[in-house]
Amino acid sequence: MRVLRMMRKLAALPPSRRRQWFAMSWARLVTATLYASRLRRLGKRSIVQTPLFWTPECIEIGNDVLIWPGCRIEGITEHPGTTFLPSIVIEDHVNFQQGCHVTCAGQLQIGAGTSLLYGTLVTDIDHAYEAVGISVATQPLIVRRTRIGRDCFVGAGARIQAGTILGDHCIVGTNAVVRGTFPNHCVIVGVPARIVKRFDIASGIWRKTNSEGQFL
């Protein structure tokens, strides 16, 4: 009966959604079989569609995570003269849309319920630029703890730079370039990004702020 109900439900879907259902089902199977043993941790019902590149041995994935195709999720273990022990923690119910780019040489955490829209970058790495005449790519890495809180919504093309700490329930605007520490319940936009409004718990409303996040 359960199979019959499922078949009826599938038959009622338009062709594009049926193809999507089968693709997701296949990706769920691949994740649970081929990827599970390679990941540091894999929760229940999570789906990883074909990455552009990843280092699963550095990655922990919680329950009900969905990672769309073409993402790069890479732990950097070596750089000229330095060895790193990267850890990328993706908590429950996180959604990566296609083409997201995550690089980590330290400890990088993405909180439960967060959505990263397509083309988002998140990193905990900067390249030093001390020696003139030497390629920046070969100079030392500067690693700063980076964390995205719970239930955040990061707009398409946003850049979450090294050392950024986002509180819970933050909204990051499309193409924003974000660096710094931001409190819970704020809207962050621009290049460089700044807070434009926050939710005032005391009054129960959204209020405009100055660039430091202080209520106007």
Structure description:
The chain has helices at residues 2-11, 15-35, and strands at 41-42, 47-48, 53-54, 59-61, 66-67, 72-75, 78-79, 82-83, 87-90, 95-96, 101-104, 107-110, 115-116, 121-123, 125-127, 141-143, 146-148, 153-154, 159-160, 165-166, 171-172, 177-178, 181-182, 186-190, 193-200, 205-208. The model has no long low-confidence stretch (mean pLDDT 93). The protein has two helices and 26 strands. β7 (78-79) and β8 (82-83) form a beta hairpin. With 216 residues, the chain is α/β, with parallel strands linked by helices. The chain has a single domain, classed as Hexapeptide repeat proteins (UDP N-Acetylglucosamine Acyltransferase, domain 1).
Task: Please give a quick description of this structure.
With 216 residues, the chain is an alpha/beta fold.
Highlighted features:
216 residues, alpha/beta, UDP N-Acetylglucosamine Acyltransferase, domain 1, 2 helices, 26 strands, 14% helix, 35% strand, globular
CA-based gyration radius: 20 Å
- Mean model confidence by pLDDT: 93
**What is the helical fraction, as a range of percent?**
10-25%
Q: How large is the count of helical segments?
A: 2
Ends: how far apart? 60 Å
Number of domains: 1
Task: Give the name of the CATH architecture.
Answer: 3 Solenoid
CATH homologous superfamily placement: Hexapeptide repeat proteins
Number of DSSP E strands? 26
Strand portion: 35-45%
Classification by helices and strands? alpha/beta
Give the uncertain stretches in residue-range form.
none
The CATH topology turns out to be UDP N-Acetylglucosamine Acyltransferase, domain 1
